[in-house]
Design a protein that fits this description.
By secondary structure, the chain is of the alpha/beta class. The chain contains 7 helices and 14 strands. Helix 5 crosses helix 7.
Length: 203
């Protein structure tokens, strides 16, 4: 498995390429823009895109979806239904049809299995994507290094994101945390030093 991070779009959102070298299969996580650059990197890596996985539907995480669809019309775009229902409003532009996924669902990327954890709060349909067996979490805008996603935008909910942070903190063992913005971290580091995570755990 390889994971490549590209900072794309107007505010440099982290777009991740999850690549399985054994099958040359890849998933694009949160393509916030610059689809040509994303496609060029995948081509250079010799990867075939199997799916586009969205942690939530804000514009800075979906800005590249339309152009990726044009280039890869058969590739499904996954999004939680609660965010899909809000597409075309406010911070969530219309991106075309999506495939719903929810808590416990699994998406195969070659030999890799991506499990969906429902982690609302930043948006109603926010999810975290866990790569089974690889100790990796794509946390979108739920959990950041030393911080968390804002809850003052439409659909945000502080109590919900606190529950989501507590749920992530309760996962057994350590994980690499790959957020939608800023640098990566580890779950153990966030348990020990992230004020919001500590508050969430204490209830």
């Amino acid at each position: 498995m390889k994971i490549k991070a590209l900072q794309v779009g107007p505010i440099g959102t982290n777009c991740y390429l999850l690549e399985d070298e054994t099958t040359n299969s890849a998933a694009v996580v949160d393509p916030g823009g610059e689809a040509e650059r994303i496609l060029a990197q995948l081509k250079a890596d010799g990867m075939e895109v199997k799916c586009i996985l969205l942690t939530h539907a804000h514009f800075d995480h979906t800005g590249g979806v339309a152009d990726l669809r044009a280039a890869l019309p058969q590739v499904p775009v996954y999004l939680h239904r609660l965010d899909a229902e809000r597409l075309g409003t406010g911070e969530m532009p219309a991106i075309g049809p999506t495939v719903p996924y929810d808590e416990g669902d699994e998406v195969l990327v070659g030999a890799l299995t991506v499990k969906v954890l429902f982690t609302p709060g930043h948006t109603p349909g926010g999810v975290t994507l866990l790569v089974e067996g690889e100790r990796v979490l794509f946390t979108g805008d739920t959990l950041f290094q030393g911080s968390m996603g804002r809850t003052d935008l439409a659909g945000g909910n502080y109590e919900e994101i606190m529950r989501s942070l507590a749920r992530l903190a309760a996962l057994e063992g350590d994980y690499h945390v790959l957020p939608g913005h800023m640098g990566g971290s580890t779950l153990e580091r966030e348990r020990k030093s992230n004020y919001y995570v500590m508050e969430a755990v204490q209830g």
